[in-house]
Amino acid sequence: MPPEGSVGTVSPRFARFDEPIVLKSGARLDAYQLAYETYGTLNAARSNAVLVCHALNASHHVAGVYADDPENVGWWDNLIGPGKPLDTDRFFVVGVNNIGGCHGSTGPASVDPATGRQWGADFPVVTVEDWVEAQSRLATRLGIQRFAAVMGGSLGAMQALQWTISQPQRIGHAIVIAAAPKLSTQNIAFNEVARQAITTDPDFHGGNFYSHGVVPRRGLRIARMIGHITYLSDDAMAEKFGRELREGVYKFNFDVEFQVESYLRYQADKFAERFDANTYLRITKALDYFDPAAAYGGNLSKALKQASAGFLVVSFTSDWRFSPARSREIVKSLLDNGLDASYAEIDAPHGHDAFLMEDPRYHNVIRAYFNNIAL
Amino acid sequence: MTTLDTPASLSGRSDFVAIAKWIKRDAKVLDLGCGDGTLLRYLKEARGVTGYGVEIDDTKVLACVKNRVNVLQNNLESGLTEFESNSFDYVILSQTLQAVRHTERIIRDMLRVGREAIVTFPNFGYWRHRLQILSGRMPVSGELPYEWYDTPNIHLFTIRDFENFCGTHNVRILERQVMAQGKPVNFLPNLLGSLAVYRFDEGPRA
C-alpha cells in the first residue's frame, strides 16, 4: 500500500511527434518523443490540468512510485498527491521530461534516425523556449487547450515564466518558485566549471562516448559536486556535517575524512550512474541562455506585456544561487504590467534546495493558492 | 452623532470603513502593512479596485493568499523600490505609521508611488491617553493596546503633530475623519478622537 497522500504506483508514458520542431538555435528535429506521467483525472471541461516542469537533475517522474522500483519516489512527491498542496483529487497533473533529457524523451543518447547511431555530440543545444513549445504540443495531444497552472522550481520555474510569455492564452496561473529572470555571471561561471569538468574528462570523447562503451564519470561527478554545493546554504551544510570526521582524527592523507566529503562523493556516484553527460551540458546551456528580457532591450516588463496569467512567486531567504532579489526582479515586472501576483519570501535555511523541502510556511502558501484557482 | 454604516466584513475596523468610503470605484490601490487582506478584499469585491498589499508576516501573507488578495512579502522599511512612480491611485498605510522607523521617508515614498495617500493612526492626544499620562503612566487603550515594554509603536504622535508635519513637509490634507469608539468626532478632535484617518497628496510646489 502506498503511504497516505501518495498518488501510488505510476507508469511513464511516451508520446511520439512526427511534426518537426525547429529549435531556437535553428536546428531541427524531424521527430521526437516525450516521456511523461499524469496523476489525477482530467475533468470533463478539461480545465483542471497543471503542468509541472523539472529543473536540472529531475524528470517527468514527479510523484508516486514505480511498481518495479518502489524506492524511486517522484522528486516532488511531498507537494503533489491526494490532499497535498497540489491536490490530485482536484487537479490533473502532468510531468514531462524535456527534449535533450535522459529519462525517456529524445536526447543525446537517443538514436538519430538519419544516421542510425546515437546522437551524441550532434544533438542540438536546446532552450527553455524549445521545451515550452514541446510541452505545448504534448498538451494539445492530451486534449488540454489551457493549463490551469504551470508550476516549477529553479529551471522549472523559468519554464513556467516562459509559458506566460510564449503561450499566454494557454496558461491560467504560473507558480514560479526559487527562480531568476536570467542567470547571473556567477551562475554561468559555476555552469562553465561543471561543463569543463565533463568535456575535459578523457572518457567524454567529444560527446561521442557511447560508441566507446564508456561514461565520463569523473567529469559528471565533479559537475554534480559543484552543483550540489550551490544548492545548499553554508548554514545547512554546517548543520548537516559540521567539520565532523568519519574516523574522529586527521589521517594526514587524501582519503575521505570529513563527512561532507563522504556525502559529496556518494551523491556524485549516484548521479554519475543515472545521468547523461551530454544532457547535463545541454541543460546548463539552456539555463545560461534563458533571458526572456533580452529580446526587449533587457526590459523584463516589456517581455511580459502579453502575459495574462496570475502569478505566485516564491523565494527562500537562504537561497544564494537564485536569491530573493532575483525573484523580486520578476515580481517588479509583474507589477509594472498590473498582473495579479503574490510573492512569498520564505525564511528557510536550506538554500536553493528549499524548494524541494517540506516547509509548512511554503507548502501552505502553495496549497492556499491552488485552492483559489477556479476550475 | 451617527454611526458610520459598517459592511459586515469590515466590522471591528472603523478606519477601514472610513477608507472604503473615500476610495473611488475601480481605483488602483497599494495597501502597506495590509494584514490579512481584509480591506483589500472588501475594496476588490465592493468597489472593483485592483492592487496589491505589502506584508512582512508569514501568517498574514498566507491569510492574504487565502483571501484572494495580491500580497507581496516585503519589509516596508526597505523602501518601495519595486513600485514605479504614480503607479497607484491610492497608497494606504493603516495603523502603522506610528511603528515605522523612517516616518518622513515612508510618507515621501507613498506620495511618489501614489497620486494620493491615506494614513490612519491612534491619536496620542486622546483625552483618556492624556489622563493616563497625568496619572503618571504610559497610555494603554483600545487603539494603543500595548504596554510600554512590548509596544511596536516607536513614534507616538497626536492629530496636531501630524497636521504640523504636513504643514512643514509640503503635504496637502484633502480629507480628515476623526473617530472614537467607531463614531465620528467633529468637536475638539485632538482631545475627543482616539483614531484619525487622513487622505492627502503632495501640495503644490511653491
Task: Report on the architecture of this protein.
The complex is a heterodimer of chains A (375) and B (206). Chain A is 33% helix and 17% strand. Chain A contains 10 helices and 14 strands. In chain A, strand 11 (147-153), helix 2 (155-166) and strand 12 (171-177) form a beta-alpha-beta unit. In chain A, helix 3 runs antiparallel to helix 7 and helix 4 crosses helix 6. The longest helix of chain A has 16 residues, at 259-274. The mean pLDDT of chain A is 97. Chain B is 30% helix and 24% strand. Chain B is built from 7 helices and 8 strands, in the order H-E-H-E-H-E-E-H-E-H-H-E-E-H-E. By secondary structure, chain B is α/β, with parallel strands linked by helices. Chain B is globular, with a radius of gyration of 16 Å. In chain B, strand 2 (50-55), helix 3 (58-66) and strand 3 form a beta-alpha-beta unit. Chains A and B meet through helix 9, strand 14 and helix 10 of A and helix 3 and strand 3 of B.
Summarize the structure.
The complex is a heterodimer of chains A (375) and B (206). Chain A is an alpha/beta fold and 375 residues long.
Share in β-strands of chain B: 15-25%
What is the radius of gyration of chain A computed over CA atoms, rounded to a whole number of angstroms? 20 Å
**Broad structural category of chain A:** alpha/beta
Strand line-up in the sheet with most strands of chain B: 3-2-1-4-5-8-6-7
Gross morphology of chain A: globular
Give a short account of the largest sheet of chain A. 8 strands, mixed
- How far is the first residue's CA from the last residue's CA of chain A? 31 Å
Share in β-strands of chain A = 15-25%
So what's the oligomer here? heterodimer
